[in-house]
Amino acid sequence: MSALFVEQVRCKRQLFEEILQDSNFRGVCWWFIDYLNDPDFFYCNDEMVSAFNLTSTPQNKYSIAQFCPIAGDYNRHVAEENQQAADEIFREYQEMLEGQTDVYENEFPYLSPLGGKQFFKSQAKVVLRDKRGQPLLAHGVILEITHEKLLAESLENERLKFQVLSERDTLTGLVNRRKMYESLSLFSEQAVSEKTEILLMMFDIDYFKQVNDTQGHAYGDEVLRRVSDVIRDSFGKGVDSEICRWGGEEFLVVLKGVTVETCQSLYQNIQQSLRHQIWKPSVNPMVDWVTVSAGAICISPEQLDKCTLDEWIVKADERLYIAKHRGRNQLSIEHD
After folding, report:
1. CA angle 175, 179, 182 (to 5 degrees)
2. Beta partners for 243?
């Protein structure tokens, strides 16, 4: 090692030591490592001692192996929250030391030994290397970004909450028309790529006007909720489907990879579930329970592009009209 390199390290180290004494800005941790003279230790400012709950030592000198949150044992406090993040920050730091990257930069969660989760953003750089490219002096900063991170997570949670609300019918919790059109487009694309059929089913609660007229709209809303629950439970078990409150007392269901026989079986399950529930009197002039009529159309992937989505929905609705015309409480299905 030439005297020039030794002097450069000495001068820069002296500069860093002076910076450490004057760099205790709130939330800004500052550190350096002298790989020439103290390769197993790092020096840091008081802010870093406080942020990572380090025991105070002379000159704020600490063992890298024991206390470094990036390359040492303290990395376990990152791993406890996110093992992938812990591995990533260690790997990227090593890449910086080896000269594969000029600057190390990362964000990581940190479980404090005193309890609670924090978030930090770290930047580091090797400021001096020898002729072989080996690091002689490195320094970095670590910024606590817990407040910013938690605020961003809160805003994202609120955004997702409003997104769900914008896609759902408030009474039944089923998706609304706008979301259903998105699902129909996705199901159609998947059906073509997977060479499988999709099936559209339109449901309508029989004599629903009579329910509102004789029992009131509040009970009519209860009927809508209970019928939607029955439909959701019937199609939600091992069936690739989306269920929508299409409007009023109508529900639209799209299914992928379902046979006509399965469709008929699912409809019969819905009939049985409704029959075994307790309803108020006069919900149906024919029987003592709520019934639904349904129309369905099975579409092969080769037929999908022959009609628009709206035209296929109309065809399912036409089958529903046939079921109604034939006496209600039944399924009318067409297979293209």
Report:
1. 140
2. 253
Each residue's pLDDT tens digit in the chain (336 positions)? 566 555 665 665 665 566 555 555 566 888 889 888 889 999 988 888 888 888 888 888 999 888 887 766 667 777 777 888 888 888 888 899 999 999 999 888 888 877 788 888 989 999 888 888 899 889 898 988 888 988 888 888 888 888 777 889 999 999 999 999 999 999 999 999 999 999 999 999 999 999 999 999 999 999 999 999 999 999 876 678 999 999 999 999 999 988 889 899 999 999 999 999 999 988 888 888 999 999 999 999 999 888 999 999 999 999 999 999 999 999 999 875
Strand partners, 82: none
How many angstroms separate the CA atoms of 203 and 319, rounded? 10
265 in the same domain as 305: yes
If you search the block for the tokens 């002076």, which residue do you land on?
18
Residue 162 included in any domain = no
Q: How many CB atoms lie within 10 A of CB 155?
A: 10
Residue 29, helix vs strand vs coil: strand
**What is the domain extent for residue 251?**
168-335
Q: What is the CATH number of the domain that holds 291?
A: 3.30.70.270
Q: What total of structural domains would you count in the chain?
A: 2
Contact, 296 vs 199, CB < 8 A?
yes
DSSP assignment letter at 285: S
Is residue 249 part of the annotated active site? The answer reads: yes
Question: Quick one: CA torsion of 106, 111, 112, 118, rounded to 10 degrees?
Answer: 50
Q: Are residues 180 and 316 in the same domain?
A: yes
- At 26, which CATH number? 3.30.450.20
144, 197, 242, 249: which is the annotated catalytic residue?
Answer: 249
My answer on whether 139 and 189 are in the same domain is no
> How many angstroms separate the Cα of 100 from the Cα of each of 39, 69, 125, 136, 150?
20, 21, 12, 16, 32
Asked whether residue 208 falls in the same domain as residue 104, the answer is: no
